[in-house]
Design goal:
Elements (H helix, E strand, L loop, with lengths): L2 H18 L7 H23 L9 H19 L3 H23 L6 H18 L10 E2 L13 H24 L2 H11 L1 H6 L4 H20 L2 H5 L1 E2 L1 H4 L2 H14 L5 H20 L5 H15 L3 H12 L1
Antiparallel strand pairs: 1-2
Helix pairs in contact: 1-6, 2-6, 2-9, 2-12, 2-13, 3-4, 3-5, 3-9, 4-9, 7-9, 12-13, 12-14, 12-15, 13-14, 13-15
């Protein structure tokens, strides 16, 4: 399927999911669906830099928090509409990714990974001491009383928004993967020095990947304050976002757009089931166990394993 055909199909599926959700009577479906779709966006965003390019990003929670606290700042400033918050948070996180990439991606190896982790620590300290967004005590966000399209609860709005944002992230990832940019990123991942010798603009492509990845992660966090109605630094910078953003592409497959989607749907669904039946404290343990199992059995992820089986047949 070409990129021109894939984008409208993804949008149609997203709209169908958002519309079909009105037939669901169990309200927990929307809460669980929102969380799983959030992980779809985070995993897809991480994979653009970590999977396509080969540069590991440990600062996923930082970009997620940038999107969340952009929403808090705009809410405190002038009660901006949700659409404005989503666009603004995406742009601010993209600028953060651009800055981080420009300053660190001239270096190779683990330097970018260390810098991304340092970014999360620096931003955490900054937010804790920023009184305008609540600082260490956190901030309350009141959900609007008037809902569009006759919806009954605001979680329905957030779920529909997350469906559309997840579809947008997948379209962006697939477009990059099947374009000349994706081939350039794959060359960087395989052998960056050889790619430079072949004339690939490695620095430009790496900065582009860091910008797009950061923007999508920030987009995932823009609706988070409305989802909780209260946000504080330890929630926005939660370790689970960074861990899941890395584990889900590894489990699903890192070199293709469908890998993060499969990994996020599988792992996110398992976590939601465990959270309801056992305890949310088991989530990171489950991530670690599944990560070890899949890395051992299927190093190329579930999608890579399925493709290998097809080739053998």
């Amino acid at each position: 399927m070409s990129n021109r055909a894939f984008a409208p199909v993804a949008l149609a599926v997203a709209l169908a999911l958002a519309a079909a959700s009105q037939l669901v009577t169990n309200e927990y479906f929307f809460t669980a669906g929102y969380t799983v779709l959030l992980f779809v966006i985070l995993a897809t965003a991480w994979n653009i830099l970590g999977g396509y390019t080969g540069y590991v990003n440990f600062g996923s929670a930082a970009f997620f928090a940038i999107g969340a606290y952009t929403t808090v700042a705009l809410y405190n400033a002038f009660k901006a509409p949700l659409a404005v918050m989503i666009v603004s948070g995406t742009l601010v996180a993209g600028l953060a990714g651009l800055g981080l990439g420009y300053l660190t991606l001239r270096l190779r190896g683990v330097f970018f990974a260390i810098a991304s982790l340092a970014l999360a620590v620096v931003l955490y300290v900054f937010v804790v001491n920023w009184d305008f967004v609540g600082g260490a005590r956190g901030a309350y966000i009141l959900q609007p009383r008037e809902l569009p399209f006759g919806l009954k609860r605001y979680i329905h709005v957030l779920y529909a928004a997350m469906v559309l944002m997840a579809a947008f992230a997948l379209v962006v990832a697939r477009t990059i993967e099947t374009s000349a940019i994706g081939r350039g990123l794959a060359a960087i991942r395989d052998d960056e020095l050889a790619a430079e010798c072949a004339g690939v603009p490695t620095l430009r492509l790496k900065i582009l990947a860091a910008t797009v990845s950061g923007a999508l992660m920030g987009m995932a966090g823009t609706t988070f304050p409305y989802y909780l109605s209260y946000v504080e630094p330890s929630a926005a910078f939660n370790l689970s976002y960074a861990v899941n953003a890395i584990a889900m592409p590894l489990i699903g497959g890192m070199t293709m757009w469908a890998g993060p989607l499969v990994g996020a749907l599988l792992l996110g669904t398992v976590q939601q089931v465990v959270q309801v039946t056992v305890s949310s404290e088991w989530n990171l343990l489950i991530v670690g166990v599944l990560l070890v199992v899949f890395v051992t059995i299927a190093p190329n992820g579930i999608v890579g394993w399925v493709q290998r089986l097809k080739k053998k047949r």
